[in-house]
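CHAIN AND CONFORMATION:
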Amino acid sequence: MNFDVRKNGDVIIVDFSGRLAVGVTDEMLPQVINELLDEGHKKILLNLSDVDYIDSNGLGELVQGLRAAKRHGASLRLLNPQERVRKTLRLTHLLPMFDTHESEPDALTAFASEQIA
């Protein structure tokens, strides 16, 4: 699992690649999200377009990150999860929990129209 963090306006975009799975991420996803929240960022977009696999551990980390964002009054969204990841989110009934966008411009537009304290 690799990731890069970049900024577009007031949106922080975290580009992930690889697998969100037990033994691979080692709580990396929640740590990244918590660091961004601690820095005061309120709009976080997780780019999952290069994540080819997610297991129950990875799902738990996504949910943990979403809960942390909500506690901080922040918004966390998903960008373009691959079909395999999307299917796993759908089968576990987690997909409706997340605002998911197919393209980065769509996600940025959605963030722009959102009022965050």
About this structure: The mean pLDDT is 92. The beta strands are 2-8, 11-20, 43-54, 75-79, 99-101. Residues 56-71 form the longest helix (16 residues). Helices lie at 28-38, 56-71, 83-91, 104-112.
